[in-house]
Amino acid sequence: ERSRAVQRDINRAEARLQAIGSESSAAVKLSKAQELYREQIERLYPSWQDQVERESIRRLKRLEHLTAAVQERREIARVAFEKERALRSMVAEREHVMRLAQDEEKREIRRRELERARLEARARERAALSWAKQERERAYPALPAQL
Fold first, then answer.
1. DSSP states of 46-77 as a string?
2. Measured between alpha carbons, how far is residue 12 from residues 1, 9, 39 in Å?
């Protein structure tokens, strides 16, 4: 910024010089202005270079910090995803085991219902046989055994 300001001053001086003409005093003034400019540049350049270097180092540190933060977020996201994937796998496995258990439970219920129906049919059959026997005995009383 300082060098720009100095360059503007030089440019203005050159413009004034051209407006005046090519008098020797103007050429001397321009030469002196250019020499002053060079001296100022030589004097300011080392501090400007140090300032640029410090700014570059500061920017580099900031970028390293940002990169580390991004890496940390990536690692956290990776770990979270691995946990999520493991949990989803466990949930899927448990759902499968639960469905198998439900299917087995349904088969057991069907077996019990079939057994219950078989037992009820057998009980009805026995009851019918018992009723038929009682009806026969009423209809045909037994003869006395001593006859």
1. HHHHHHHHHHHHHHHHHHHHHHHHHHHHHHHH
2. 17, 5, 19
Structure tokens at 145: 């055994």
Nearest CA to 17 out of 5, 33, 41, 39 is that of 33
Query: Do residues 55 and 32 make contact, with C-beta atoms less than 8 angstroms apart?
Result: no
Assign residue 21 a region (left: φ > 0; alpha: ψ between -120 and 50; beta: otherwise). left
Extract the tokens encoding 35.
Answer: 């020499």
CA–CA gap between residue 83 and residue 87 (Å, rounded): 6
Residue 115 DSSP class? H
Half-sphere exposure of 84 (CA within 13 A, CB side): 6
Q: Which tokens go with 98?
A: 């639960």
CA dist 108 → 14, 47, 53, 89, 124 (Å): 107, 90, 82, 29, 24
36 residue type, one letter: L
Is this prediction's pTM over 0.90?
no
Neighbours of 102 (CB within 10 A): 10
Query: Which of 87-91, 99-103, 112-116, 138-142 is the least confident region?
Result: 138-142
